[in-house]
Design goal:
There is one protein chain. By secondary structure, the protein is mainly alpha-helical. The protein has 33 helices and six strands. Strands 1, 2, 3, 4, 5 and 6 form a six-stranded mixed β-sheet that branches. A hairpin with a 5-residue loop joins strand 5 and strand 6.
Amino acid sequence: LLKPLGAIISAAAVLAGGYFYFHRVPRFTNKDTVVISDFDNQTGDEVFDDALKQGLAVSLGQSPFLNILSDQRVRSTLKLMGRTPTDPVPLEVAREICQRTGGAALFAGSIAALGSQYVLGLKAMNCQTADLLAQTQVQAARKEDVLKALDEAATQLRGKMGESLSTMQRDNTALEQATTASLEALKAYSQGRKLHVAGDDAAALPFDQHAVELDANFAIAYQDLSFVCAGLNQGEDGEKYQVKAFELRNRASESERFRIEAFYYLMRGDLENTRATSQRWRQAYPQDLGPYLALGYVEAPRDPDLAIRELREARRIAPESGLVLGTLFDLYVEANRLGEARALYKDAPLGQGGAPPSQYALAFLTGDQPEMQRQLKSATGNKYVESVLLSMASDTEAYHGRNQKAREFSRRAIESAKRDEQKRNAARWQTRMALREALLGNSGEAREQVKAGLATESWHDSEIVGALTLVLAGDSASAAQMADDVETRYAVDTLAHGYWLPCIRAAIETNRNHPQKAVEILETTTPFELGDAGTLFPAFLRGEAYLAAHRGGEAAGEFQKIMDHPGIVGNALLGALAHLQMARAYAMQSDTAKAKTAYQDFLRLWEDADPDLPVLRAAKAEYARLELTAVKDPKN
């Protein structure tokens, strides 16, 4: 009846293997999604609410094998479940979210007081069956030690889930270093982050500010502050916080360091370093939203179609992110893919921060005057978009030659920005008005507005637009000096060196009657012309250089580019002036019929323009001479 010892050992091995096969922890990959529920806080101390869940997300998020479902996906799934996006996510709700999103596992945590000590528990469960996959429990002697204990528990859980010691050692920045040692700061940050993800940057701002007040070395809180300020059109503060985050980037996890570095380089205009960093980030964390968003920004000036593909990937990860949807919407508009833009807005409404300007741009391109007025009215009193819409309205008026109305809207935009302490926007709107004045032939007014704009805030945008304005207003010497200063101060800015500085210097050469040299300088801009770097200014300036060189056919080709890409040009004055310059190019080629049509197109656009504009008076005189020529020589 007794079996040989070898057979018994073999049978035991088979049984053991079978047990561990059917009860083993599944191996996760970075394509498997996991969900984190709210902490079960049994202490009665509100400081643990949200803070511990955020801390656990940071700690577990360092693992290359755990792809945590984004806050945006959690919000959108809650809506599908008939809940509000801000509802709590206790264990059972989190499990349903996990099931709906095809998640692989659910992570849950709890904290309870044990005398003066705290007990933290973590567990991982199968979303479908609720089977326990792994669990751990640790104690903290004091409240101040809770984050360290959470870190220890998260590391233990990663090991019990089957992660190798080598990756845990490599990707395991201490939680206090990756976030903060202050529970109060982590709680404030987590509250701000929830509001930011919900698209309410105005409400998120004080929480993020409080987080860095509590811990001045809280790197990722500074990063979120920079995003929040950018969303509120507070660019100067956003840059300040981005620089601070970059200085503290070694006090963050690897994924957050990627985020901080990529957006720091992007802020500086260094597209090559942004691209390289974002590609490494995407390779290490392919399910993170950030690298796709950053790469979308990087590719937009050079290859809008590639940028759209990157943003679609970002939308797959975060389908209701206002930032992603707003950026994708703008890219569709710029690419003149207006049907897709409309569908995006209809199916996934954009957050209030991006909706009015984006919708206004779309309405202009489709000739929807009532919608333009509705969007302008909707922005009234909204300090984050009011000045933007007023400036856009000024561009529309100028596009149709109504410069007096354009000036009034610009003045209101500048006053609105100053009232809301947005000095950079005020300077931006003033120098943009100055550029229009120069294009319209009002050189003296253009120079005065540049001076006023730079006095308000001399920074990247106002300096570049100011220099371009001055050269178009005939002051090449001042423009050259400003261009040299921009080149030095923004040494790594890709678009400054590859797009705007060549525009300024080409215009200077045209003023000096060196049109061929201007054309050669503008070759640098070719890779960026059909992206979102500007409003096809290089094509306009190249066309003017060809006109100066009496090369009408080549000039016409450049102005045709502007007409063929209305999404890029939008309501910029160049779009209207391109018709006039096209007429001059045809006239130079003695093609009277086409010249007359182009003049008529321009005059139709400006049928109710201010009658005293130098550009309009010149156009009418040229058209009259053309008609007289046609009468004398009917063959033309």
